[in-house]
Amino acid sequence: MSDITRIDQNARRSRASVFGDLVFLAGQVADTKTADITQQTKEALAKVDDMLARAGTDKARLLSVQVWLKTMDDFDAMNAVYDAWVVPGNAPTRACGKVELADPAFRIEVIAIAARK
């Protein structure tokens, strides 16, 4: 059985866990809480990219993405950023929904699962 590698761990959570050839990311949010959905989406996806790289993979290897939005009014603007970010021909499965996020300043949270290289 493979060992589990936990990345950026504290007492409550790991930002990523690697088990075998799979990488599981915790929810990634923006750094700028006051930003609009376009900027928050860019920042959250940049964090996904960073965590995937730290786990030894990249967005071309994404298997599944969950997008949580504060309001579905942000759906089209979020999709404009997301669609430009996804690697053509390698779109993962995706679910998107309206969720009450832990901090109301966040407009988006992104959770992902990827295969390792």
Automatic annotation (TrEMBL):
InterPro entries: RutC-like_sf (IPR035959), YjgF/YER057c/UK114 (IPR006175), YoaB-like (IPR035709). It comes from the Bacteria. SUPFAM superfamilies: YjgF-like (SSF55298). PANTHER family: PTHR47328, RUTC FAMILY PROTEIN YOAB. This is Enamine deaminase RidA (YjgF/YER057c/UK114 family).
